Each structure stands twice: as structure tokens, then as C-alpha cells.
From TrEMBL:
The Response regulatory domain, residue ranges: 8-36
Protein name: Two-component system response regulator (Sigma-54 interacting regulator)
InterPro entries, sorted: CheY-like_superfamily, Sig_transdc_resp-reg_receiver
Highest taxon of source: Bacteria
GO annotation terms (biological process): phosphorelay signal transduction system
Transmembrane segments: none
Organism annotation: Proteus mirabilis
Amino acid sequence: MAGHKSANLLLVDDDPGLLKLLGMRLTSEGFHIVTG
């Protein structure tokens, strides 16, 4: 998409598996992910 800008997202959850899954999916869509 022309002009698409990446967003920074903070993902926080107590389930490490869910954080990994969401992080991979959102990263593949162009988001910059930080987990906590």
C-alpha cells in the first residue's frame, strides 16, 4: 500500500505463547511490536 506507515504496538499478556503468536502475525503485517 503506497504511503503505508508502520505503527508501534505494545503487547502485554500473561500468556507467552499468545504474545509470540500475536507478535509474529502483527510483525508480518508491518507493525513494530514490543512485548511486556
